[in-house]
Design a protein that fits this description.
Layout: H1 3-29, H2 32-40, H3 47-56, H4 65-72, H5 77-90, H6 92-95, H7 107-123
Length: 127
């Protein structure tokens, strides 16, 4: 092995765990208000992580479910995929009801798959 490759491997072996630790710490330091603003924003990239952090703090996630559903109804495949991931990671009991939902598929098929679930979930009392 050449020296540059060895240096790169050592750097990654040390740097990656440090980066992960700093990222986790940054999430723990965010206020509940900051996390809620991230969820309500149009930035789909942080939705699932913000929901996970709120869940760790024992915050009820049910008020944020309509945002996830809205994303799953989006015209954008990327937003639909982010919504599906958020549902899978934070609302597993609802995600398991959606075997036919394919976020990268045709928008009409996506909507036909999710709308009955949305109606069912939003009309049932919270558990």
């Amino acid at each position: 092995m050449n020296e540059q490759l060895i240096f790169t491997l050592i750097f990654l072996a040390i740097g990656f765990p440090i980066a992960v630790m700093l990222d986790r710490r940054s999430w723990r330091l965010k206020s509940i208000n900051e996390l809620e603003m991230m969820i309500s924003s149009n930035d789909w990239k942080q939705l699932s992580n913000a929901l996970k952090e709120l869940d760790k703090r024992r915050v009820d996630l049910s008020p944020y479910l309509p945002k996830v559903f809205d994303m799953m109804l989006s015209d954008s495949k990327i937003e639909r995929s982010a919504g599906k991931i958020a549902l899978k990671e934070n609302y597993r009991h609802i995600y398991d009801l959606l075997p036919s939902y394919e976020a990268s598929g045709n928008i009409e098929k996506c909507r036909n798959a999710i709308l009955p679930i949305i109606e069912q979930v939003l009309s049932s009392p919270p558990h």
